[in-house]
Write a structure and sequence with these properties.
The chain folds into two domains: about 10-115 and about 310-330, 2-Layer Sandwich (ornithine cyclodeaminase, domain 1); about 120-305, 3-Layer(aba) Sandwich (Rossmann fold), CATH 3.40.50.720. It has about 325 residues and is an alpha/beta fold. It is built from eleven helices and 15 strands. The relative contact order is 0.19. It is about 35% helix and about 25% strand. The strands form two sheets. The protein has an eight-stranded parallel β-sheet with strand order 9-8-7-10-11-14-12-13, with helices on both faces. A seven-stranded mixed β-sheet has the order 2-3-4-5-6-1-15. It is globular, with a radius of gyration of 20 Å. The longest helix is centred in the middle third of the chain and has 20 residues, at about 110-130.
């Protein structure tokens, strides 16, 4: 007679995830996940997004990683009205399963997981593609991902100055005031987005903008951009000129060609062709593709987010769950 396995479902909230997986841990985990993805060791169809109402969408991101013995599904709501209720715009759960027996193992807070793995992915790309002597970081936007990106980019490059731009100066100043006091960088708030872009060695766009905020004519040789905020085909944070001038690397080439708004628009307008996407960050990490060809090149990483990142970070948190008193385990 086969003995029935004990069924426990572990819940990992934001506090527990922060305790279990550090930013530096996540950078290494995400890098390995993207190498595995580009090497064909991950099965992850493109995300499915459906409209719930005028302000809310439901996103589903499934994937399986046989090398980890795990598969999972990220379920996330994206609501432009959530902040009116004091809630983050991205909410949901990442469900992780054992691929040997199909058992659900844990549920992870999507807001915390997305924030961590997205910043880690930008750090991975920045280390692989930006100039090693990059010292000025420009953050376009002051939402959920802004602070995490200051931490993440500073972990891989010797950042001395951070320039922050947002639509509402008061909110930007409040954001900067809320940053940890131990930061040793010079942090500057500006209302001049053109100046913010032109001064940055590394530029991270972390907005929900539907129309381009950053223009290609503002760029200078040697800069690196991480386009992070928009994950839908209809949304663009930068214009066609930025895309056309850049050495373009994606997390997933197939996903970028179908869902990256900036790239799709530039292709539709005839500014670039599909082969403008040079490859994936996993290819760069594996050494089969350069992160940049020369110091004067403008490099760009398009981050749409990937299930491999979510599964890998969630699995790392699960493997360390017994170390945290914050984790809750319930009979299943």
């Amino acid at each position: 007679m086969v003995e029935t396995a004990q069924r426990k479902l572990i819940f990992i909230n934001r506090a527990a995830l922060d305790e279990l997986v550090s930013l530096n841990d996540a950078i290494g985990i995400v890098g390995a996940a993207m190498r595995d993805f580009s090497a064909g060791r991950v099965n992850a169809p493109q995300r499915a997004v459906m409209t719930v109402n005028a302000s809310t969408r439901l996103g589903l991101m499934p994937g399986t990683m046989p090398d980890l013995g795990r598969f999972g599904l990220k379920v996330v709501s994206l609501s432009s009205d959530a902040t009116k209720f004091g809630l983050p715009s991205h909410q949901g759960l990442m469900l992780l399963f054992d691929d040997a027996n199909g058992q659900p193992l844990c549920a992870v807070d999507t807001y915390a997981l997305t924030r961590l793995r997205t910043a880690a992915a930008s750090a991975v790309a920045t280390k692989a593609m930006s100039r090693p002597d990059s010292k000025v970081l420009t953050i376009i936007g002051n939402g959920d991902l802004a602070g995490a990106h200051i931490d993440a980019i500073s972990a891989v490059r010797p950042i001395e100055q951070v320039i922050v731009w947002g639509r509402h100066r008061g909110k930007v100043e409040a954001f900067v005031q809320g940053l940890p006091k131990f930061l040793n960088q010079n942090i500057q708030v500006t209302s001049d987005i053109r100046q913010a872009v032109s001064l940055g060695d590394i530029i991270c766009t972390v907005t929900s903008s539907q129309e381009p905020l950053v223009l290609g004519e503002w760029l200078r040789p040697g800069q690196h951009l991480n386009l992070v905020g928009s994950s839908l085909r209809a949304a663009r944070e930068v214009d066609d000129e930025v895309v056309a001038r850049s050495y373009y690397i994606a997390d997933s080439k197939a996903h970028a060609l179908s869902q990256a708004g900036e790239l799709c628009h530039a292709i539709e307008q005839g500014r670039v062709k599909e082969d403008h996407v040079k490859g994936e960050i996993g290819d760069v990490l594996a050494g089969s593709l350069p992160g940049r060809v020369n110091a004067g090149q403008i490099t760009l990483y398009k981050s749409l987010g990937h299930a491999a990142q979510d599964i890998s970070v969630a699995n790392a948190a699960l493997s360390r769950a017994k170390e945290s008193a914050r984790v809750v385990a319930v009979d299943w």
